[in-house]
Amino acid sequence: MLPETAYQIVHDESMLDGNARLNLATFVSTWMDESANKLYSEAFDKNAIDKDEYPATARVETNCWHMLADLWHAPDPDNAIGCSTTGSSEACMLGALALKRRWQEKMKKLGKSTAHPNLIMSSAVQVCWEKFCNYFDVEPRYVPISLEHKVLDGYDLEKYVDENTIGVIAIMGVTYTGMYEPVKDIAKALDKIEKDTGLDIPIHVDAASGGMIAPFIQPELEWDFRISRVYSINTSGHKYGLVYPGLGWVVWRSTAHLPESLIFKVSYLGGEMPTFALNFSRPGAQILLQYWAFLRYGYNGYKTVQQSTMDVANHLADEINKMDMFTLWNHPTDIPVFAWMLKESPNRKWTLYDLSDRLRMKGWQVPAYPMPINLTDITVQRIVVRNGLSMDLADRFLDDIKSQVKYLESLEHKMPKNNTRSFRH
Ligand SMILES: *Cc1c(COP(=O)(O)O)cnc(C)c1O
């Protein structure tokens, strides 16, 4: 067929995806400035792995993770090491692979078995951690969250740690609720474990979203390389890094924290450049877009953007909290994300899933889902506020949620049950 015909067919079909700006479910950027769009269209042929063909992009990539190392208080940013990835999932895998290899090398030196590595994390981890454990043969040890311990906070940690523990994952911005895990408390619990047992357990911080919020909104909060037990940190450039989908970052506190045996060399300007990645070829354009965003906003610009996102999240949370059928699971005090629950009422004819469907009719995507193991009886609904959801648009959303709740409250019979839903974090 003619290229225009093929275009029209694909274009028309993709219209069914819905309006990205009304998607309050995703963490991923759906808006960038015109000049970023221009830069993107000039760079969509670049392959990030071809350091020799695209040495300028390679240099920009190095600049970017050095800036992140500095932002996250690496003791000596010049001696840190990092890389870009396709997203936080790949970045998490690289961080965890480094933990695994480091542990293997340590155990081999001690003449001990490396057959049964385990990794400790909250039951509310993002699905990439389940994938890592499945794909790379590591036993996941989930610490269940509860109403008393809404996040992994170091409580009971000694029951999970043993000599086969490759590390602990701390999440800065749990996907279910947006809450930070107190990395400092987790580190303190591990300090005590080291004192009692001699086991020195490192932390990887999954800061997919919080890595680009905390340095601007909670600069006093110590969660990063200021804590010596934190070996590596990942973030998603395409979340609060404000870049279109396809970009993640991982940084190690120093070159000594990334085992040499994982590094491959690719040719670069007649020389060699170290690389560590799961993919070979992948787009290089997002790397340039990240650099654009760093230059465009600077520290103060990021702070302003993230603060206005926080303001919108707080406004939405306050208004939803005022509606008497809802209670908030959390206020958006950490990242601009919050979740709420429906209060029990014997005569209620609807659930949060029904509300989610009704909002979808208005174009809004607002997921409802059960909390993880031990709390699966609790259903929550969540909003992720991102750059591009203005106060004005938020008010239109509030009009819609109020009118849809009014409709659901007026029902005379229960909504039919739908068991086909699924939602993966
Ligand atoms: C989004 C997210 C991930 C996965 O990141 P991608 O960039 O989508 O691959 C991992 N962990 C957390 C905490 C997240 O929020």
UniProtKB/TrEMBL annotation:
Q: Which domain of life is it from?
A: Bacteria
Q: Does the keyword Lyase belong to this entry?
A: yes
Q: Which GO BP annotation is one of this protein's?
A: L-glutamate catabolic process
Matching entries from Pfam families are given as: Pyridoxal_deC (PF00282)
Q: What is its EC number?
A: 4.1.1.15
Task: List the cofactors.
Answer: pyridoxal 5'-phosphate
Q: What CDD domains is this protein classified in? A: DOPA_deC_like
Q: Which GO terms describe its molecular function?
A: glutamate decarboxylase activity; pyridoxal phosphate binding
Full protein name: Glutamate decarboxylase
What enzyme category does the UniProt record give? lyase
